[in-house]
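Subject: mismatched residue count in predicted assembly?

I count 496 residues in my input, but I want to confirm that the predicted structure covers every chain. Input:
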Amino acid sequence: MATIKTPARASALHFERPLVTVDVVIFTVIEQQLKVLLVHRPETASDPFPGSLALPGGFIDVAVDASLHDCALRKLGEKTGLEAPYLEQLGSWGSATRDPRGWSATHVYFALVPAPEDTDATASATSQWLEVGTALRTHLAFDHSEILAGAVERLRAKVEYTSLPAFLLPEPFTLPQLQRTYEVVLGRPMDKSAFRKRMLDAQFLAEEGAIAGDAGRSAMGYRIRDRERAAVFPRTFRSVEGPSLASS
Amino acid sequence: MATIKTPARASALHFERPLVTVDVVIFTVIEQQLKVLLVHRPETASDPFPGSLALPGGFIDVAVDASLHDCALRKLGEKTGLEAPYLEQLGSWGSATRDPRGWSATHVYFALVPAPEDTDATASATSQWLEVGTALRTHLAFDHSEILAGAVERLRAKVEYTSLPAFLLPEPFTLPQLQRTYEVVLGRPMDKSAFRKRMLDAQFLAEEGAIAGDAGRSAMGYRIRDRERAAVFPRTFRSVEGPSLASS
DNA sequence: CAAATAGTGTCTTTAAGACACTATGCC
DNA sequence: GGCATAGTGTCTTAAAGACACTATTTG
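Triage response: the counts match. Full output below for your records.
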């Protein structure tokens, strides 16, 4: 960093700084649909994209936010009241033209949260849960449509080989519920037997007593063993694992 | 973005802006070792971390760089003279404390380049290729050690299921050369037969005449079909492919 | 022909997919 | 018992791994 060539301004840092924001793509599943939380931008004409739908986010507050991650957590908490969701950095988007107010860069996170008990509490006058397909067909403020497309692509890609959908469910949940969540996110049906073998072999679930459904047999409830990280299913070029230790 | 609550500063943008930089982790393979390009920071006492090793990078020039990606390409060109390498965004690191000059955020890219013809042309008084293991054990400026660790982790993870190592070789290359590159990056030997089946089945290589080696039988040379993207090898939850079209 | 390296064939193993089957709870 | 849903078993298939074999080039 900071290879400044003009001696006059060396380490003076007097050049123009871009605007810096953090945006969060918050996913959940409500009524068997993958949804994303969007906010209405203020109608004030002095703000860019007045009234448009946008991802929740905003400027970094250098006095409040210790880090980018903390800033994303703060914004997530402000919108959903949730404290410890699955939160992962998606990437950053920055250019001279994405914000009419000047050169700007945004750091984007994506979060997976269980469906809120009361949908209306999170969906208010200024924010709402939109079905992802609908959201993708909507013109969002700034380059947020492109960012949302990137987030959906990343989510779908990772769902193919990780336990991410488990973070979209309230605990405890059953394997059939988890399977339906996978199917909703990926948009295709999955085989029950293969699905169960895979989930149980991956060792990321802890049993938690039976749960009765609306009809039929009741099912085993599960919790996520480690909410800090998602499980990764076996893939190509077997990465030399084997049982941690052989006896003696 | 920009949900500003204090009416007084609404869209005034008068709050403090963080420093914004772009850093690039440039990998190559030289003499059967995975290397990363590092630069010496200036000895000027007014600069942070004088004399330390650091990742190449620097402040965004809002007058010159159209986007983050362009900025990364510019910095890569300045250091290596290369124009069209494999370049992918790694993520961003930002906090109040990572730079003594103030709240700063850096956008990090990682690049894969073929070994330079003349190593000394890129390794100069201010920059040098360091073996990755050595670099990881070195204290780098800022949080660059952490960033480098993240880049190596991402590279190794993706090498398990993509054709990324092909971008570390000058074209045309042979399958045995490619296999050695995989082995160098992953630090473990691979089976020849399985390796070749996989590479050829993935359809990302184009034949380009035989190449004679130092000894023994000569081998088929290959080029990357599409330098814009890496091939992804088959993974879990078979993503419904099948041959593009059945006859008739 | 020997040494060295490139390339192939065959069998095993792992995990996914298809699909039929059994088990349990509620009316 | 009948329906609905949970959960299991068995066979097939795709692709990785082990490893022995053949092929081509140089000296």
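Chain B touches chain A through 65 residues (CB under 8 Å). Marking this ticket as 'not a bug'.
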